[in-house]
Each structure stands twice: as structure tokens, then as C-alpha cells.
């Protein structure tokens, strides 16, 4: 990347969002490779502006990205604020706009009205169509941990960001010997599923690991015999529900806590249609059924609970691709093509 300003790391405005797609150590590597990195001030970011300044980045006021030079690539995690409604730059963030989400058309129209381009982080894929970078492991880890703590009556609201060491200590402190719970992880072989299985291991919960074969031919009675369900399935197309309305009233159901890590609650791809909205840091669990009890945790920014660990892992995976942005490597070409297809289909 040889432009006067290469990357413009903007602040995140979403509540509780302390993560960043680029940590100071990796920013230093970009600067060392000749990329100029501009970083907005951000009070809630897990890494201080001083750390970026020490890495050779230029620090600018929050929400100044609309005034960035036209060639700047604006980098973030979630949708930009309304500092400018029309988006004129190339933007890198998670658009959540291609899977039928309710807000998808609105997000895309911000680009069509401004002439900009979305390079969606979710659409950075290899030749086989597999995502090259994601927060999945930490989403699964935190989602499973919250499910265990809720099931044990130890999930206090409001939630606060923490560290893995502190979260693991809480899981171990509440565990029983032997564990009285049984958990099932759907999508156990994926990033999120692996994170969920690891957290359940720390908590001492015996865990059934199901993936494509088991979810394609779901043994519903076996699923309902578990106490905790963690949904970590990434769906590319609609499929049969993992839980349906009749399951809620099943008097023989042991299942009492569901953690919906995938959180496709506003999408036609939602495999848990019994839940149609997210939960929050202030109210992390919601009751779906009273007798027998079934509660759901459906927080859509789970890795933010471990902002430093999640950011460090994500940034390490993203940085090599940022170095290929000027060369327009295949991962960026595919992301841009996905955007072009999406805006062509706008009504």
C-alpha cells in the first residue's frame, strides 16, 4: 500500500464494544512495511491511543473519518456512525448485510448514495470459500461460558469486559464435582464450536460435540436430554430448526439454557426460530418458556467480553491480508465482488 494515508482505524461507537481489528503491535508492523496508519481516539477501545502513537501511528479525533483523503481505507468492526450518512470511501467492517438481515439494505444504501465500497470482513474467504479471519473462537468461548454461569445461577448483570484468566477462574469456582450438567455444542468443529468446547472443558461440563453429520439428521430427543445447548452453526442457507415451538412445551425436556452464538435472529437463516431477538449486556438472558424453564443467551458481540484477547487474535489474522490490500489480492477481490452483487440486487 503506497497511498499517502493507507489505513484509517476509526473508533467503535456501539455500546460495550472495546475490540479493535488492529492492535498496536500489528499496526507497528504495517508502519514498518511502509503503510501509514491513522488511528482515531477512542475512549472505550481496549488499547490506548498512546500505544498506537508509540507504534508510529498518527492520532486524530474520533469520528473524523469522513474527512479522510479519498484514497484512505477506513477500517472498523461494526457499521460506521452517522458522522456521515453517505459512505464515500472504501470501508472494511462486518456489514451483516448479505444474509437477509433486516438492516442490510439500509447499510448498503449508505454506500450506493456515497459511491463507496464495502470490503466486508465476513466475505474475506479463500479459494474454497472458507473465511480466512473471524472472531469465532472467542465468540464460542464466551457464549459457552455465559451459558454455564447462567445455568448455575452465577451470571450477574450487567456484564463487564474481563480477561480469560478471570473468566476461567469464575467457571472453575462454580463447578461441581462431578458436573451435574450435560452440554451439547452444535457446529463443534468450527471456530466457534471449538471455542465453546474448550470453555465447557474449563467449566468441567461433559460435552457432546455435534457437527454437520449430526445436525443434518438431528436426534431431537437426544438434544433435549442435554441441560445446555450452544449453537455455533454458521449457516449459508436456510435449514430445519434445531429447536421448534413444540420443543418448548415438551415435559420431558432437560434442556434449560441455550446460548445462541450464531445469533442470526433477524435472518431467514435463523436455525433457532424460537428466539427472534438478541439479549444484551444489561439483560444477558431471556426466558423463552416458563414450565419447564428454557432461557436463552443471544448476545451479538460476545467476543467483546474479552476485548484484548479477541482483538489480538483477530488482528494477527487480518494483518497479513491488510498488507496485500494495495495489490488487490484474491481475498479482497472476492469481497469487493460480493458487495457489487449485493448492491446490484437492491430494490
TrEMBL record:
Residue span, Alanine dehydrogenase/pyridine nucleotide transhydrogenase N-terminal domain: 8-142
InterPro entries: AASS, AlaDH/PNT_N, Lys1, NAD(P)-bd_dom_sf
Entry keyword set: NAD, Oxidoreductase
Family statement drawn from the similarity comment of this UniProt entry: Belongs to the AlaDH/PNT family.
The protein's name: Saccharopine dehydrogenase
Organism listed in the record: Actinokineospora guangxiensis
